[in-house]
Amino acid sequence: MIDRHKFNENFQYFEKEIIVEIIDIFESEYNERYKNLRENIQNKDFVQLKFNAHSLKGVIANFMDPVTVELSRELDEKAKNKEELGLVPLFDELEKQSGVLRAELKRIKEELTA
Asked: Domain total for the chain?
């Protein structure tokens, strides 16, 4: 769940249009990002998984959602350590929580464009 106070602080100097654009970029890249992560896990490609998980963590951190940030951090850490155990359930939970994040971002976007 997005910490709205921190979210507002993070984007306080941005125009509404820029915030909407950042949300739109996240949304446009979402399916490809998660497809790549899923493939990295299936192929046990820890190098690419580390890269993609770390990148996702950075993007999600902008939205001040501590749950998805922590899950992406854990995925990044498992990839770095080439730790296979628990990867799939962790990824599934990250994907689930990211869906919640997307819904929240959609509401924020609607507020900003109303």
From this structure: 1
